[in-house]
Amino acid sequence: MSVGSYLELYLAALGWHFYETLWSSLLNIGLLYIPFIAMAVRAWIESYEAAGAEGAERNIRAAEVSIATMFTVVMLAGSPFIPLQPSGLVYTRPCSNDAAKGGASNTTYDSVFTALGISEITGHVPVWWYGVMAAAGGLVNAAVAAIPCQNDFRLYQYKLENSRIKDPQLRRELQLFTHDCWYPARMRLFDSKQPLPSGYDPSDIDWPGSQFFLDTSGYYGVNNINLATRASEEIPGFPFDPQRDTEYDTEHYPAPQWGRPECKDCWEAQTYGIRDRLIQEIEVEAWAQTQGWVTQLMNAFGWDARKTEDAALRSMWTIEDGRLSMPVTAGLGDAAGGRLARAGATVGGRWESVFFQSKMYAIREAAPVGQAVLLMLIFALMPFVLLFGEFSVGTLLTLTITLFAVRFLTFLWAAAVWLDNTLQQALNPTGWFDFAADKMDYTVSEVVIDLVTGTMFMIVPVLWVGMLGWAGYHAGVGLNSFLEGTNSSAAATGSGFGNALSLVKNRFRELKPPNKK
């Protein structure tokens, strides 16, 4: 039997184990007999109050039909019968052939639920609900399989944007680089009042890895006169160089082990350079996917590998720095002020975009977890619903529709993920790598994508469950009314048939000749 998430592999069996326990408790206490006793007492009272034997017989026949219906519901949808374990449940990820089973899903759930003993737990499922679960699972799998496979842009965008620098030494070096190299370089460019060369994007200078500062002498390059283009303290990995580190008195004091590299070397050097070490801090799966898309971007939009890598690093630095690449700087010229105004106008939208993507990722991750927990509670509390619903067919139908509605949410969320990624690719072809391409504005396209995604994840499921719940309730009420009418008709027919039979017998006695003596 298929389920909708890894967590459901365990919670479904646990929910039915709770169901079996509660059902047995209600049976042992005797509460499950109350609806039958109430039906018998109600039939006796109505028969007693009925006028004549005909009305009493009609009520008794209707009660017999109702009790038979209740027994049928109990046998099919109440009594636990078919055993179910986590190892008997299967979850298949969309667009993959990896079928995970309970106890062997290769997730952290295995160790946790195994330690709790839940991986070996057994719950017994009534025949009706086992069939409903199997049918709903097959229908959902078929619907999800019909959705085209698509790159999950938002997932990897979230992972890249939320990558954190775990190495404290690297974080320290990045802070030094920002204050020793990037801030002075920006101030030098603004003080010169020279426009940025046409070959560079206007937003290139808005982060420490600026290509213009790396390429131009006097900024990150060779400039022995201005010590601001070098680190202010020794950096591990960069050996002491007497030709470069002339501020040390090596004649009277021993030379330090490490030196103060120039900004360009500090950023680009292999092994010990900040850039290469920042790349290693990015989440492995996200970075592998990023490198896989580099070729596509190069072929479709002329992007090179370095530009794509810088876009990812710039995103990580933006969140890590917390300033959205816009430090407060006073005394700038008109050109710098215009650039500040342009960039400042995008800060609020960009920052809101980052937070929205984090919220949407959290909703995406929480949706199947919430669904699994909700299904477990539905399974566990079902005995009370059946009991308080007097084991009616209408209650059974309402529960069936509700269970199907919750189970079908798997397809709605899969469709929402596909639509989100498709819209990102259609409305912004270069995708989320456009951070460094002067397109940091929170555009109308991004607003449309966010609104549609939020609606699909939060509003549509509520409407879906509400509509089916409303339909299930009214269908249950209508079916109960129909059954009550059928019971009354059957009782009246039976009573009429008995009266007709009695009339025929009496008439036959009248026509029979008297016995001869």
Q: Per the principal axes of the C-alpha atoms, what is the gross shape?
A: elongated
**Beta-strand share of residues:** under 5%
SSE class: mainly alpha
Q: Report the mean per-residue pLDDT as an integer.
A: 75
- In whole angstroms, the N-to-C terminal distance is 80 Å
SS summary, helix count: 16
Give the helices and strands as they follow along the chain.
Answer: HHHEEEHEHHHHHHHHHHHH
Radius of gyration: 37 Å
Q: Can you give the helix content as a percent range?
A: 55-70%
| Largest sheet geometry | 2 strands, antiparallel
Please mark out the parts with pLDDT under 50 across 5 or more consecutive residues, or reply none.
224-228, 323-351, 431-442, 485-505, 507-512
Strand line-up of the largest beta sheet: 1-4
